[in-house]
Write a structure and sequence with these properties.
mainly alpha; two-stranded antiparallel ribbon; 36 helices; 62% helix; globular
């Protein structure tokens, strides 16, 4: 009886599918064209605009080729600063240049995009020749492009072909993910243990939270770790002090603006008087008199508009000394006020080995004490206000943040579902009377509405969510920028998966089956089986829009350029101009990875249900790879050091696509009464779970920690550790620094022999390809799976070779940082305790105004003032040498802590 019911349900589903096809439910070329054509036009216009303005606005489109804030060895080589020769440079430089001269995480992000390109390409090669014929001859009634999807399969025996292809492709995905995880472990170990990194202060400094009061006393950590501890920095609650410091700094910047305005007013008035026949305009006395002239002096009201009128310069100069005294008093009291200490403490160890050992050990009997702990955090990435939160309150904040994120995710389902229904608006118009007018629209307009509008609106809906998640993470008490970014990535991927995939899939399918469900409730399983594959229609256009429009938008970054042009016209002070010229964007990986991880999940899920999606994914991922490659080579700067954590997490999250794909196929095979394929796919699903659990058990700790034997081996090579002290051994007395697979063993020699053969074959195959095309293929063929950290170290530090006129570059990872005693003493001290009043930077003028202002600032407020690097012309306009930012008195290369 149940078998008969199932057959009836499937018959109802087939009838519903036929009805949907007749009413426009199938994927049509018009719908696809409605997305591709406008997206291609927009992308073409963006790219043309980019080519037109790139040479004119080099500070926006190629700052890494010349900017002084980039160390010379890290600048991207350029054979020409104009024209289209940069195409040649772009093609000749390989991705390893980014690894050695930009950042570790930038290289990994590009590698992740290459991985998605490789998966999509292999998926197309594997699924298209087999599944397209099987789907086209599947016995269904689908039309147009739907004939190429699983929705056209009605013959149970055809499911065997889908089973075989699914097992092969999903096995390849699992293998390539595991291979990448192992490679990342080795590369991360090599990166962390380079001499340049091991010498950094952050590499041997550990942040402990929730330290008990006795742990904050001098000498406590020495009792735990012995002579391995060099110094400690306790963190205090400084909310009042921070407010005063911020107020003082703001006052200095306002003083700059007021004094520049004064100098401009004097210059313009003196020029006017000179033109009218007056003399002695350039004398100091005349300039001094002009400074005191009320007509030249800027004023303001406090409160604005309705308050008392003040002379801006005098008011600020009178305020700064009082603020400085308050700041000094609080700082003096703070040094002896232990009650203001929080439970956070930074501990510097004598070397990298001692620091990592401290992170991996348990040092206190209380489960909350000295937890959590972080290593490798530069001072610039510390969230000082979050360090002072009590441990119990931090836990409460954490749960509150999670609750808020979940609420946002659930609420967002409503607008996302409404947007996605537009992708099937033609079908709704045939079943809902008040929408019948839509069917009267021209096919081109209808294709535009169905194909372009939904993915575009979905992109807008999700664009601001990661910023909210990051703010919530910081407010929840995450103590470092890296921790906040990790939290953002975890939850933003969940948001992307639920909204962009799950809600979109269900909403897209529901619009085509809602009326059939009302008429035939018993046909629900069959209807879902028929229409779930059709939800892939939305993603065909979504990949297109993302790949064309979004990548081109990233390249032209018109909002940033327009903002630059606008504020350049408004910038009045040298500092404002300097900040504008030196501002370089960085990539926040916690919000970037989830978008592409979710796209990868979508491509994997639909790989055997609607293989056409893989082709659009291949195009989209390739365009994104080329775009981000340009950004890393020419425009972006490193802001955060995630040390591969986001990359590792994204690889794990990609397995979501494997699991969902297997579950969908189990259901679809069951709806087709294909019991054999359904049973085998269930077994494959169980094996996937067991494999994942096993791999995580053994690889997980290596992704989180750096093994001590690797650190000892690196210390021996670098010669920067006392190797006779503190060395640990395994239980059998063997040296713990011995690698897992020795190169002298039989298996090691066998692996190396085949590695050499494969590598030579790879090099011969890619000899005529440019490096950026050569790299993705080489990275797949080269045997990185078995390479150790030692063998990968040259991968990081080798000198970039000279190629067709591009000059040589030494890797940044060969430069060992050095620090002064003052830098070390203040490195992990809250800037509120150590920061000085900013230098007042005003332009030089020919009437002596800047000289007089320098004297007055020093005498009245003790403010250092400089008029170097900028000047006012005879018309009072600000002039300075934008080509050499090092001439600015506030120029300073950041210290690599």
């Amino acid at each position: 009886m149940s078998k008969i019911s199932t057959i009836l349900s499937l018959d109802g589903a087939h009838e519903a599918s036929v009805a949907a096809d007749k009413q426009g439910g199938s994927t049509s070329f018009a719908t696809i064209a409605g997305a591709i054509i406008p997206a291609a036009i927009i992308a073409g216009a963006y790219f043309a605009a980019f080519l037109a303005v790139r040479g004119k606005y080099r500070s926006q489109y190629a700052p890494r080729t010349f900017s002084r804030i980039i160390p010379e060895k890290d600048r991207t080589p350029s054979t020409s600063s104009s024209g289209a020769k940069w195409f040649h440079d772009y093609a000749q430089l390989d991705d390893k240049f980014i690894l050695r001269h930009h950042s570790f995480d930038a290289f990994l992000f590009l590698r992740f995009l290459r991985l998605l390109v490789a998966i999509s390409f292999v998926g197309c090669c594997l699924t298209w020749p087999i599944l397209f014929p099987l789907n086209a001859t599947g016995g269904g009634k689908a039309q147009q492009l739907d004939k190429l999807a699983f929705s056209n399969v009605a013959k149970a025996k055809h499911c065997w072909g889908h089973l075989i292809v699914a097992v092969l492709f999903l096995s390849f995905v699992i293998l390539i993910i595991n291979r990448e995880r192992v490679f990342l472990i080795s590369l991360k170990q090599a990166y962390i243990t380079t001499k340049a990194n091991s010498a950094r202060l952050s590499s041997r400094t550990v942040l402990f939270l929730s330290a008990p009061s006795e742990a904050l006393e001098n000498g406590h950590f020495q009792r735990i770790f012995g002579d391995d501890v060099k110094r400690t920095w306790t963190v205090s609650k400084l909310d009042d002090l921070k407010k005063l410091v911020d107020k003082r700094n703001k006052g200095v910047y306002n003083l700059e603006s007021a004094e520049v305005a004064l100098a401009q007013n004097v210059t313009k008035r003196q020029r006017k008087e000179t033109e009218n026949g007056h003399t002695n305009a350039g004398s100091l006395e005349r300039g001094d008199a002009s400074i005191s002239d009320p007509r030249n002096r800027p004023t303001h009201r406090s409160p604005p508009l309705i308050g008392q009128k003040f002379d801006s310069i005098d008011h600020i100069l009178d305020t700064i000394p009082d603020l400085n005294k308050q700041i000094s008093d609080i700082r003096e009291k703070q040094s002896s006020n232990k009650s203001r200490r929080s439970g956070a403490i930074f501990v510097e160890f004598k070397d990298q080995i001692s620091a990592h050992r401290a992170v991996q050990q348990v040092q206190h009997h209380s489960p909350l004490a000295l937890q959590p702990r972080y290593i490798g955090v530069p001072p610039s990435n510390v969230k000082w206000s979050s360090l002072t939160i009590d441990s119990a309150l931090r836990i409460s904040y954490g749960y509150s943040a999670v609750a808020l994120i979940i609420a946002i995710t659930i609420f967002w389902s409503i607008p996302v579902a409404l947007v996605v229904t537009i992708s099937n608006i033609k079908y709704l118009a045939g079943n809902v009377k008040w929408l019948s007018w839509i069917n009267k629209l021209p096919s081109s307009i209808l294709g535009l509405i169905q194909g372009f509008l939904p993915p575009f609106a979905l992109s807008l809906l999700t664009s601001n969510v990661p910023f909210w998640f990051r703010d919530i993470a910081e407010l929840s008490g995450e103590p470092t920028a890296q921790a906040a970014e990790n939290m953002t990535q975890r939850w933003y991927f969940i948001f992307q998966f639920l909204q962009v995939f799950l809600v979109t899939t269900l909403s897209s399918s529901a619009t085509t089956i809602v009326t059939q469900i009302a008429n035939q409730p018993g046909a629900i399983p069959g209807l879902l089986a028929q229409n779930l594959p059709k939800s892939s229609n939305f993603y065909l256009t979504y990949f297109t829009l993302q790949g064309l429009s979004s990548s081109a938008s990233l390249l032209i970054k018109y909002s940033d350029t327009l903002t630059y042009v606008f504020f350049k016209m408004l910038a009045k002070t040298p500092r404002q101009r300097y900040d504008l010229e030196t501002k370089m964007k960085g990539l926040f990986y916690g919000s970037q990875y989830p978008k592409f991880t979710n796209l990868a999940v979508i491509a994997i899920v639909y790989s055997c249900i609607a293989p056409l999606v893989l082709g659009f994914a291949l195009i989209g991922f390739t365009l994104f790879y080329l775009t981000y490659r340009y950004l890393f080579l020419y425009t972006n700067n490193a802001k955060l050091e995630m040390k591969g954590d986001c990359h590792a997490r994204a690889l794990q999250q990609m397995l979501t696509g494997v699991y969902v794909s297997e579950l969908c196929l189990i259901g679809l095979f069951g709806f087709r009464n294909a019991q054999g394929p359904s049973i085998f796919m269930t077994i494959f699903f169980i094996l996937t779970v067991l494999h994942h659990v096993t791999v995580n058990k053994y690889i997980g700790p290596l992704e989180k920690y750096i093994p001590l034997d690797i650190l000892w081996t690196a210390a021996e090579e670098n010669g920067d550790a006392d190797l006779d002290e503190g060395r640990t051994s395994t239980n059998d007395g063997a040296d713990s620094s011995e690698p897992l697979i020795s190169s002298n063993s039989a298996i090691g020699r066998h692996i190396q022999h085949h590695a050499v053969l494969i590598k030579h074959a790879s090099q011969a195959l890619n000899a005529n390809l440019p490096p950026f095309l050569r790299d993705p293929l080489s990275s797949v063929l080269e045997p990185h799976f078995f390479q150790s950290a030692e063998s990968l170290r040259p991968y990081l530090t080798s000198t970039t070779t000279d190629t067709d006129g591009l000059e040589l570059r030494d890797s940044t990872l060969t430069t060992v940082p050095t620090y002064t005693e003052q830098q070390l003493a203040n490195a992990y001290v809250d800037p509120a305790l150590t920061s000085k009043a900013p230098l007042v930077w005003i332009p030089k003028d020919k009437y002596g105004v800047s000289e007089e202002l320098k004297r007055r600032n020093q005498e009245r407020a003790g403010l250092e003032t400089s008029d170097e690097g900028a000047e006012l012309d005879e018309n009072g306009k600000l002039q300075w040498d934008e080509s050499d930012l090092s001439k600015a008195p506030i120029f300073k290369l950041p210290t690599r802590f």
